[in-house]
Amino acid sequence: MKNRQPEFLKKGDCVAIVATARWLNQGEESKAKELLEAAGLIVEVFPEVFEKEFQLAGNDETRANSLQRALDDERYRAILIARGGYGTVRILDRLDFTKWLQRPSWICGYSDITALLGHIERLGVAGIHSTMPISFQVATKEALDQLVDSLMGKHTHQQWNSNYLGDLALSGKLIGGNLSVLYSLIGSISYPNTSNSILLLEDVDEMIYHIDRMMEGLRRSGGLNGVRAILLGGLTQMRDNTLDFGFSQNNPFGETAESAIIRVANSLEIPVIPGFPTGHQNDNRPFYHGMEVELVASNGTVVVKYY
Questions:
Q1: What is the pLDDT of residues 92-127, one digit of tens each?
Q2: What is the per-residue pLDDT across 26-60, written as a single tens digit (0 to 9) for each?
Q3: Sign of the alpha-carbon dihedral angle for 260, 265, 269, 275
Q4: Which domains does the chain have, with CATH numbers?
Q5: What is the DSSP string of 1-54?
Q6: DSSP string spanning 92-161?
Q7: Strand 272-273 vs strand 227-236: parallel, antiparallel, or unpaired?
């Protein structure tokens, strides 16, 4: 069965900005508010996004209650998570999606928000993997324009150049996000359903051998079962056991993060296509998480079409 698709937004609809992980400083929401209002949307910034409890935007109860209000209020046709970091997984089991499921809204975010996107995918609802308000100041025009288009139902496809030079044509459900977060969800009710799927992976600031360990964990747990292809987003700020990264001696892992992912995928005969413009980078373009797509790769050009 296809996942349910929330209603696309129209001018005059209301968007909530909510924090499930880290906090915002006053003013860091302004670019998001300005851009969304310019698109004709009404934006409400929940005050809890400015609360601070060490790294988090308030304690777990505060963040859960804040998101619950947004989920339960049908005025909010989209919920943008303010910032990632860590903390979303700590509130998932406190949430009640009963009312939200009657008329779901678009939930948008990436990185730590992979946990929330995976959770709602298991509930049978699509979301939007996208940049978040903390990053609107540095995001590319393409990333921001495509996010607005995604909310409005105008984002039809993504195209990019890749070093994958083979020919490939297949369809499936596009899921995934941050590899580290996905790894942490193994065995839980929030790990997305991988049946007949195309899995997007991205990550930031990880040791290369950690990437290998997480991929092996997905493989051995069955977390790659049903995956028809893997798309790679940004693998940024990867580190190795070398002098260049502050270690006392050169003891490199011997692979790149990309080649480690490809090696594990090859063992399952899963093709890997790099270059999807998303992840921890300014050009963090959105994709509809949990929606069916057609994937066509030929001569270094890749197109993903949503339907």
A1: 999 999 999 999 999 999 999 999 999 999 999 999
A2: 999 999 999 999 999 999 999 999 999 999 999 99
A3: negative
A4: 14-152 (3.40.50.10740), 157-306 (3.50.30.60)
A5: -PPB-PPPP-TT-EEEEE-SSB---TTTTHHHHHHHHHTT-EEEE-GGGG--BT
A6: GGG---HHHHHS--EEEE-GGGHHHHHHHHHTTB-EEE---GGGTTTS-HHHHHHHHHHHHT---EEEEE
A7: parallel
